[in-house]
Amino acid sequence: MSTHSLDARRLLCPMPVIKAQNRVAQLQPGDILEVICTDPGARNDIPAWCRINGHRVLDVRQQERDIIIRLEVGSDHD
Amino acid sequence: MANKQYKAVALISGGLDSMLAVRVLQDQGVHVEGINFYTGFCVEGHTHAIRRQDQNKHKRNNALWVAEQLGIKLHIIEVIEEYKNVLLAPKHGYGSHLNPCLDCKSFMVGKALTWMQEHGFDFIVTGEVIGQRPMSQRRDTLPVVARESGAQDLLLRPLCAKLLPPTRPEKEGWVDRERLHNFNGRSRKPQMALAQHYNIKEYAQPAGGCCFLTDASYSHKLADLWQARQHRDYELDDIMLLKVGRHIRPSPDFKLIVGREEGENNYLEGYRHCFTHLRPAACPGATVLVDGNVTEQDLALAARITARFSQHRDRPQVTISITPPGTATRQLEVAPLAPDDIPGAWYL
Ligand code: SF4
Q: What domain range is B304 assigned to?
């Protein structure tokens, strides 16, 4: 299990989701990915994408202009 | 194999039709996953995310939302670069604006075919309905999409399948043709009835189409961009900026992009390293980007227009800060242009 980080700042939705999706595809179940973004739309889109694809959002926090979404890769991803 | 569960990949736009098409197949025990293509022109999120006044509204990506309602996975594929070939030289031309719908559909179904083959799926599904759209969904153009995409008879349209020749999934009994539909024409009544049957109460209703290219004003701005640059090409930033602000072209050599509110101003400021930008020095007002080549005289005009969109527009003189990329800011004192002095034809 390892932790990874993805800088999706200044990208507009759905690009942060696409970047997260493509990165998750390279990770192992149980790995943690921290996505840093600025588009508020990602607050809805990334958790929605996680729900339908079997990943788990651990937390979402705001740090000044950055929104940081931590997710754990689920077991049946492809 | 008697009990094999067949797998279909469905093009999910976020509208009702693809939602219904998936439901019809799920009803028949088919395993469905969704695919959605991001061309850069999709009507999703962007403008909502940029404009401050929209930031508190419920924002969602319709394709993701639909997938969640259907309980299917969704794969979003970014096709920005490849899509340029579709938009810049569509074999079948454009619809009423710069929307190359027929080529676009063939391209997307073709991409879905590749995905299907790579992931061991059996066929492709779309929510297309004969006669629903003037260009890409006519009786004579549906076969064009099947043929030019390479999907041929692996492309199933469950909402109008009974009006089309049987596809392989029907011929081989992967799905029951009798339980598919025969929707036809522009009426939405059959879809509404089917939505009710499936107890689907909420769905997005995209007006006109799934992307900005069906929008007259957007297409006009894109055509203007090509004309001004004297070649037809674009980068993602170009097409994003066409969605933001007022676009004012005082001369063939340059145009101004004027933020309409705080969210747009912030967004435009993100481009200050690429464009000369102007702002009122001592009062709130629009951030203005200059796209093109400007003379000192053009900059003075840009400053007067910036003053016109500042809070001090009624004062005789307003100080405007001008910052070319990578250069120090300088200030210019100008008289705001009167609204009547900006000819209507300058607005794109
Ligand atoms: S509306 Fe846009 S995305 Fe939809 S088929 Fe036409 S060109 Fe393609």
A: 244-347
d(CA B260, CA B272): 17
pLDDT per residue over B262-315, tens digit each?
Answer: 989 988 998 989 999 999 999 999 999 999 999 999 999 999 999 999 999 999
For the Cβ of B101 lying below 6 angstroms from any atom of ligand 1, the answer is yes
| Partner-chain contact A48 B65, CB within 8 Å | yes
Q: Is A37 a catalytic residue?
A: no
**pLDDT digits 0-9 by tens, B185-222:** 888 899 999 999 999 988 876 545 678 999 999 999 99
Q: Which structure tokens are listed for A37?
A: 């973004």
3.10.20.310, 3.40.50.300, 2.60.40.1590, 3.30.110.40: CATH of A3-72: 3.30.110.40
Pairing, β B7-11 against β B31-38: parallel
Q: What count of residues does chain B have? A: 348
Alpha helix locations (H) across B92-215? 101-118, 142-148, 168-171, 189-197
Q: What burial letters (b/e) apply to B260-297, b meaning 16+ CB within 10 Å?
A: beebbbebbeebbeebbbbbbbeeebbbbbbbbebeee
Report CA A37 to chain centroid distance, whole Å: 9
Distance B106 CA to ligand 1 centre (A): 11
Q: Write down the pTM of the prediction.
A: 0.91
Reported ipTM: the value is 0.92
Q: What is the full DSSP assignment across B315-333?
A: SS-EEEEEE-TTS--EEEE
Domain assignment present for residue B234? The answer is no
Q: What CATH number does residue B126 fall under?
A: 3.40.50.620
Measure A26 CA to nearest chain B CA, in Å: 15
Contact residues of B toward A, CB < 8 A: 38, 42, 44-46, 48-50, 55, 59-61, 64-65, 67-68, 71-78, 119, 240, 270
| d(C-alpha B159, C-alpha B165), whole Å | 13
3-state SS, residue B136: coil
Cβ separation of B59 and A40 shorter than 8 Å? yes
Rounded to a whole number of angstroms, the distance between the first and last alpha carbons of chain A is 17
Q: In angstroms, what separates the C-alpha of A75 from chain B's closest C-alpha?
A: 14
Distances (CA, A) of B20 to B12, B65, B179, B226, B289: 10, 14, 13, 39, 44
Question: Closest chain B residue to A19 measured between Cα atoms?
Answer: B78
B45·A53 Cβ contact <8 A: no
